[in-house]
Amino acid sequence: MEKLVKYLSPVFVAVTLLLVFWAMFTTPEAATVDNATAVGANLYWGYALMGVAVAVAVFAAIWDLMKKPEGIKGSLLSLVAIIAIVVVSYVIANGHDFQIVDLNNQGYFDRQSTVITDASILVTYVAFAAAIVVAIYSAVSDALK
């Protein structure tokens, strides 16, 4: 597995850099076909990388649980916490009554799209806050050892 990652990582980085340079150096005029194609290719590449990352993370977690079944309790607890955060974020977002203006269609975005977007933003805020708390805790606990 390490060899696979060792050889695929530079390939992924190279493809990403090529796509980014393609998008950056296509014609600078807005809304050209070449520019839209380059940006679309970057988006699809990002989606593919995200899918691969999620699949590898899930596979690695299942593989680790099969090797060390005593970690199932912690994994289930983490899964419950993540589901709770997503559900609470959705409930909070569903309680908001603002409308987001859709400038292209001279109207407003539909309610479900705005609720999902708002919930996603709230989940991202919680993830950032948790990452900061864990980083501070880790630094303090390492300093006290």
Strand order of the largest sheet: 1-2
The rough form would be described as extended
> For the CA atoms, what is the radius of gyration?
21 Å
Into how many domains do the coordinates divide?
Answer: 2
Whole-number average pLDDT?
85
Terminal Cα separation, in Å? 34 Å
pLDDT < 50 runs, ≥5 residues: none
H-E order: HHHEEH
Q: The biggest beta sheet, please?
A: 2 strands, antiparallel
Q: Helix tally?
A: 4
Portion of residues within helices: over 70%
Strand content: under 5%
Structural class: mainly alpha
| Number of separate strands | 2
Describe the model.
By secondary structure, the protein is mostly helical. The protein folds into 2 domains: 1-67; 70-145. Helices cover 81% and strands 3% of the residues. It has 4 helices and 2 strands, in the order H-H-H-E-E-H. It has helices at residues 2-25, 33-67, 72-95, 111-144, and strands at residues 101-102, 107-108. The protein has a two-stranded antiparallel sheet with strand order 1-2. Helix 3 (72-95) packs across helix 4 (111-144).
